[in-house]
Amino acid sequence: MVDIAVAKMDKYFGDTPILLDINFEIYEGRHAGLVGKNGCGKTTLFRVITGEYGFETGTVVIPKEKKVGILDQTPRFASNDTVEAVLRSAFYEVDAIAREMAELEGPMADGDKYAMRRYGELSVAYEIKGGYETETDLNRVCEGLHIGKEMREKRFALLSGGEQTRVNLARLILEKTDILLLDEPTNHLDMASIQWLENFLENFKGTVMVVSHDRYFLDKVTDMTIEIENLHNDVYDGNYSFYATEKEARLELQRRMYEKEQREIARLEFTAKRMHGWGMGASKMMRRALALERRIEKLKENAVERVREAKSMNGSFKDSGRSGNDVAYIREIGKSYGSRTLFSDVTFDIKKDESIALIGDNGSGKTTFLKILLDEEKPDTGRIRWGSNIHMAYLPQKVTFINEYNSVLEETVAALGITEPMARNRLGTYHFIGEDVFKMVGDLSGGERSRLRLCILMYAEVNLLILDEPTNHLDIASCEWLEEALESYDGTLLFVSHDRYFINRFATRILSLEEGGLRDFPGTFEEYQIDLQKREAIEKEQKPIIKAEKKAERPTNEVYEAEKRRRADKKRANALERQIAALEEEIAGLDAAIEENAKDHLALLPLLAEREEKGNQLEALYDEWAEISE
């Protein structure tokens, strides 16, 4: 069954084509990655599929019976809604069933057969929709996405944009949809949360369409790739790595076919020209020449399209003087905010030409630690001593400029102290071409800001480069360009990143901020992951064995009936307790009357008879209460 079908779809903004002749099908259970350069139309296509945008021609079909979950823009909730309330809104269906079941308990206690039958139907629906597992699911997802108790108690409206996205993702997972549409789901997640999400999606039986620039993530969770390029799309039957290899193979085949065809056209044109020369006065030769020209025209009309070679950015780091062997000595660094300690007693050295990845969960203090190194923030304890001949450059996670009203050209001229023609040439290398150089820096996207800052940084003589999430705002093509530029860099590199593809390529040493301290691992990220798994396995073995609670089995039909009886019995027990209390009050009143009339035999006889009757009633009520309360 096809879950998402797009056929011959065109999308325009005004008279400008954004997407043309888009065609693909995503079958039930397939996980598709949507890739392409920034601005190619990925988000537009995503919003067409979600129904947020219309389109001019073609069809977009998702079966009506399918439940679709969308992670795109943060949904609106009441201003006083807590995170807990937002998360629990995922259970609106089972909550509605539970409310109806509760309403039926009264009639059931009175023996209403319709109520009992309806209660049984609702119990089945409640189980099928996971009603008995909501608390387990909620805690599991919150733990996986690092949504702690403190955050769950906060008002949703007071969270940061990243936190809201994380909560929304958790809510979406808890809704148990058939189709998941995810736009950059890893953007605000730390590495542990990304790995948890990967595991969830790998085991998700439904259909997924995901926009992401995280190549490692795409490799793990997708089994098909849809690329948007030059307004059109191509489909690849594999994950990102398959797509990258297959695309290059297709382009190489297209190049060869184009070159072969162009050689054939040139040969035929040469032959036709010679025939015209030979055919002067010979009608037969002229007819052959004209036939050959018609063949040439037909070939040109159906010619293989020439491969549009992507314009690559050719920037590279300027050669700098070598630093000393000891780049930095970091000793006993500690930092706290109020009662919260980010890290303490952090001690390590940085040696020349090392490539170090600083990793850790969100909130562990990675960016704060970089700011301490850069002297933008002071540590509470400890000291840093730099080696000799250190020329440092820093690319922050969020790039800002002193004068946001400067044009790209003005900013470059001012920062580098070069002429406008020189600046334009340099900017062109970084894909700031034509009118782009006159954009105000304040109007640049996150990726453009990073690109401009790199254009400036890479002009300077640098032998210590510090990067904070350098790939965050870049599309995949820009990430690959940055990686190629860094390959040419021969200095010391220290970077914070949750991009495992990037870390795998560059890190030869891992510094992990863990539980307020630092773990120093000499090796690649893959080696670090293997070591981490070994340590976790050892820790698990060394923990005292605690008998795990047996997981509750899914209710069978017998359990449903037992559950119905339990609820009815509870209702009846409550009613009995009220009757017992009322009867005990009556008996207490009768006992008082009997005592007052102890010498009046005429008045005493009916009181004693009533007291005996009430006592028998009370005993019967107690027997029934004891039976259903066992």
Largest sheet: 6 strands, mixed
The level 1 CATH classification of the largest domain is Alpha Beta
Overall residue-averaged pLDDT value: 85
Radius of gyration: 36 Å
**What's the tally of helices?**
20
SSE layout and pairing:
Layout lengths: L1 E12 L2 E12 L3 E5 L6 H9 L6 E5 L6 E4 L11 H6 L3 H18 L3 H16 L5 H11 L4 H5 L7 H14 L4 E5 L7 H13 L3 E5 L3 H7 L2 E6 L2 E5 L3 H39 L4 H19 L24 E12 L2 E12 L3 E6 L5 H8 L7 E6 L5 E4 L12 H9 L3 H10 L16 H12 L6 E5 L7 H12 L4 E5 L3 H7 L2 E6 L2 E5 L3 H18 L14 H40 L4 H29 L1
Parallel strand pairs: 3-7, 3-8, 5-6, 6-7, 12-16, 12-17, 14-15, 15-16
Antiparallel strand pairs: 1-2, 1-4, 8-9, 10-11, 10-13, 17-18
At a glance:
The chain has 630 residues and is an alpha/beta fold. The protein has helices at residues 42-50, 83-88, 92-109, 113-128, 134-144, 149-153, 161-174, 191-203, 215-221, 240-278, 283-301, 366-373, 408-416, 420-429, 446-457, 476-487, 500-506, 525-542, 557-596, 601-629, and strands at residues 2-13, 16-27, 31-35, 57-61, 68-71, 179-183, 207-211, 224-229, 232-236, 326-337, 340-351, 355-360, 381-386, 392-395, 464-468, 492-496, 509-514, 517-521. It has five domains: 1-67 and 183-238, P-loop containing nucleotide triphosphate hydrolases (Rossmann fold, 3-Layer(aba) Sandwich), CATH 3.40.50; 79-176, no CATH class; 246-301; 326-541, P-loop containing nucleotide triphosphate hydrolases (Rossmann fold), CATH 3.40.50.300; 557-629.
